[in-house]
Amino acid sequence: MLAALLCGCEGADVATRPPAPPNSGRYGFANGCYVMDAAAPGSASSRWLAASASDDAYGFTATSEGAGARLMMRASDLGTYLLRDAAGGYVVGAAHQLGRATQLESDLERLDDTFRSPAEWSLDVAPGDATRFQLRNYQTGEYLTAGGTSPSASDAATVAFYPATGCAPFPEMTVDAEGSVAPRAWPDGDLYGIVDAHSHLFSNFGFGGAGMYHGSPFHRLGVEKALPSCEQFHGADGRRDLISWAFVGGLRDLDPNALLTALVSGRTPEFNHHTEGYPEFTDWPNAWGSPTHQVQYYRWLERAYRAGLRLVVQHATTNSVLCELIAGVRAQPTRYACDDMVAVEREIVEARNLERYIDAQSGGPGRGWLHIVTTPAEARSTIAAGRLAVILGIETSNLFECLLTPRRGTPACDAARVRAQLDHFHDLGVRAIFPVHKFDNAFSAGDGDRRVGQLGSFVNSGHYSNFVLDCPSTPAVFDRGNVLFGGVNRPRAVYDSPPPADMSRFAASPLSTLLPFVDALRAPRLEGDYCQAAGLTQLGETLLRELMLRGMIVEVDHLPRRSIGRAYEILTAADYPPAATHGNVMNGRVYDLHGVSITGLGRCSDPSRPGAMGDQLRERIALIRAHGGYPAEGFGFDLNGFASAPGPRFGANSVCNDTPQQHLIRYPFTSFAGDVTFTQPHLGNRTVDFDTEGMLHIGLLPELIEDARRDGVSDADMEPLFRSAEAYVRMWERAESRGAALRQSAP
Ligand SMILES: [Zn+2]
Ligand SMILES: [Zn+2]
Fold first, then answer.
1. Ligand nearest to the CA of 640
2. Residues 6+ apart with CB under 8 A from 95
3. Distance of CA 573 to CAs 137, 275, 324, 407, Å?
4. Reduced to 3 states, what is the DSSP secondary structure of residue 101?
5. Is the peptide bond between 285 and the residue preceding it cis, with omega within 30 degrees of 0?
6. pLDDT for 201-229, tens place per residue?
């Protein structure tokens, strides 16, 4: 009674406020279960947060801890939390009130890049009470008070969080692994771990940032917003997802009439895919069968990390022509511009956001298992500490907006701009760069891709494709073979001559821009081993030299034949290592220069020969040894890159044709290091059968490795895979030291 009188509170049941429980600071509440109390500034008595009788509001009304709402504190960022109750309701702040919402909206659903959720609260130590906290709403910026919210900091309540039980778990993907990763090195001191030297985590932030590439590796509001149904973007039955339709079938054996019909209607001819995301996941993710849905959600990446993945090269990527086409025929919306460098900048920001998000789930800055590194020394210390190091790179056609045909409003590309752009992106942490990707640009002829690349390059520059039969013998990943659109090939004498076609209205009106060329598109293919007539430009050579002077990682595998030949001359003269992350080893020359490439594990067992799944890896290591390189090599899965991935060995989708397969995966199994035990993987409500479904996402890397081990590939034969992070870091160290030497000797 006395306490109630002193505080002026109603009722006789308010006791003096209990002491605040010990805590580890503003980052220490992630994924914990708490009851929360609040007191007005300067007050020594408090009440507990509870839902209203109608369940649509929250207030500090409960007079006992036992009556307080059980709140799961889910980190949405460092020091920022969602407060989710046992019935799935969130505490939201709006109009000076505390509401309760069971459905949240996201920036993506609203197509509003500025949207901030009212369910997020940033937590800070209370100014007048070092043992307690105050909360501020992420949307309104208002402070939580004993009676609602207020714009005035002086009204902020002091709050405390008391450990509790009875919370509901926050919706999340399971990792399906037990045991933690400990720091580990090889006995000779070399780094332990696998590299994925070519990866795209953030393709959903390319292509205009809506849902053309659907699904995010994380979302502040959790998996329900990271991996929701794609129907809002891909349409009912996925029929607005023209990109996947074209990649999976339409463009392989192109039927121009079907393509045109699809573009005019903005829909595929028939059912395309089931759209359900979390927690049903009917048709996606599927890294080998569905190219437009996220396959590297951070929990899947974490499962791969637990299997030994320790280094990932994350290339920011997008494609402005695909984006403009899909948006221009109104098949799907965008959230921001289709321009390549808009996407690149955004993906770099989101990489930092992901690092913070994982840190936030793990208890604070630097506590997470993923760390973006900017020097080989930092990569070494990160990997040696048992964490996953991420290197930032760029792989996009209109690098630095240096188009072959400059667009109105884009600055002219010259050596000064290239240097300034390199400095800018180096400052942002980018260390690996592809000079060219798919389309012709100001640095080089395009990579020679004969499908989307050939048409897209035409649209991007207004230049017909430039393929000829007079070709150097240089190996190339894309620049070889038949030309698919024979009518669009008109070789030109001068690479950067004025373009014959005006594509400036393509984004506004793609179909009417393409209409005059329909007959050319229908012309038959050209049979023969064609290659790009042009190679590196002067500006392209400048870019290579500037990359080397900065000690950056030079990605060579999208260079067409003439360009890669010249690039190797330049790299050889500078004794500089290339990164060949689409697998072009140039007959071993990449290793002569101490560069790196990628390899893989065979997918199919040979009933007569145990260990056949290790053939490719063994042969590659022999080649590396023969060229004096460090005998190790990793993967370059190119996940989220419209590329393929390891398929299943069994069932209707088996990639092994008629070869009978043995050795189903058996659970549990242990990692190569023996530190982690893997159990049957789940996708939300369903279990995943790796044997018949293959590598649907990066989280099934443990199964890919286990498959090879069960096939009889020996630990000694697997070892080079688990030394591949060392191989990559050695290449990077060499690039850095050669860069320093070149700067010394530069005039
Ligand atoms: Zn979809
Ligand atoms: Zn690529």
1. 2
2. none
3. 58, 52, 41, 35
4. strand
5. yes
6. 999 999 999 999 999 999 999 999 999 99
116 vs 111, 138, 500, CA distance in Å? 12, 7, 46
Q: Identify the DSSP state of 292.
A: T
Burial class (CB in 10 A: 0-12, 13-18, 19+), 607: exposed
User: Closest ligand to 558 CA?
Assistant: 2
Give the pairing of strands 32-39 and 71-77. antiparallel
Q: Which two tokens stand for residue 99?
A: 């509401």
CA 88–ligand 2 middle distance (angstroms): 42
Q: Which structural domains are found in the chain, ordered by start?
A: 2-163 (2.80.10.50), 194-597 (no CATH)
- pTM for the whole thing? 0.96
pLDDT single digits (tens) 185-200: 999 999 999 999 999 9
State the angle between helix axes of 340-361 and 298-306 in degrees (0 to 180), rounded to the nearest 10. 60
On whether the CB atoms of residues 418 and 518 are closer than 8 A, the answer is no
The enclosing H or E element of 661 equals: none
Taking residues 43-68, report their average pLDDT.
96
Dihedral over Cα of 33, 35, 41, 44: its sign: negative
Determine the 3-state secondary structure of 213 from DSSP: coil
Q: How far is the CA of 578 from the centre of ligand 2 (A)?
A: 15
For residue 564, report the distance from its CA to the centre of ligand 2, in Å. 15
421, two tokens: 């752009």
How many Å separate Cα 110 from the centre of its chain?
22
In one-letter notation, the amino acid at residue 115 is: F
Query: Residue 466: how many CB atoms within 10 A of its CB?
Result: 22
Beta bridge partners of 99: 57, 92
Provide CB contacts within 8 A for 381, sequence distance 6+: none
User: What is the CA(89)–ligand 1 centre distance, in A?
Assistant: 28
Kindly write down the DSSP assignment for every residue of 521-585, as one continuous string: HHSPPBPS--EES--B-HHHHHHHHHHHHTT-EEE-TTS-HHHHHHHHHHHHHHT--EEETTS--
Question: Is the pLDDT at 388 greater than 90, yes or no?
Answer: yes
CB 319 within 8 A of CB 308: no
8 SS3 class? coil
DSSP state of 637: -
Which ligand has its closest atom nearest to the C-alpha of 248?
1
Rounded distance between C-alpha atoms, residue 73 and residue 36, angstroms: 11
- Residues, CB-to-ion distance under 5 Å, ligand 1: 230, 234, 238
- CA pair distance 662, 653, nearest whole angstrom: 16
Distance (Å, whole) CA 624 – CA 684: 42
pLDDT of residue 12: 40
- 639 Cα–ligand 1 center, Å: 16
- Ligand 1 geometric centre to CA of 248 (Å): 13
Report yes or no: 393 and 430 within 8 Å, Cβ to Cβ. Answer: yes
Q: Give the Cβ contact number of residue 736 at 10 Å.
A: 18
Quick: pLDDT tens for 112-161: 999 999 999 999 999 989 999 999 999 999 999 999 999 999 999 999 99
Name the phi and psi angles at 525, rounded to 5. Answer: -70, 160
402 with 442: CB under 8 angstroms? Answer: yes
Residue 447: its pLDDT value, please? 97
Ligand 2 centre to CA of 395 (Å) is: 7
Cβ atoms of 410 and 206 within 8 Å: the answer is no
Ligand nearest to the CA of 580: 2
Nearest to 739 by CA among 574, 540, 539: 574
Ligand 2 centre distance from Cα of residue 291 (Å)? 14
CA distance 300 to 698: 6
